[in-house]
Amino acid sequence: MADVGEFEMAFKLAKSISDYKERFWTLRYIIEDMAKAGKFDQALEIANKIIDEDMRGNAVFIVVNEIAKTGNFERAIEIVEETAPER
User: Are 32 and 64 in contact, with CB atoms under 8 Å apart?
Assistant: First the structure.
């Protein structure tokens, strides 16, 4: 697992990628690694900055899934309810 400094460096590099799909997939892997490291709030902060709704939903799902794996289902449900698009 990467430490905080490595996450910050990776995030800065990802932001410099001009192709939005490549940038998303890079950010997605960073978000996944952060969530697996238990850095849920930081991962969600990055995920919520993704402009494309579908891509943002994918990134948030990754974090919610990792939170649920810890047994914190209430927090996982709370995030889903907060981030779900209005219908």
Answer: no
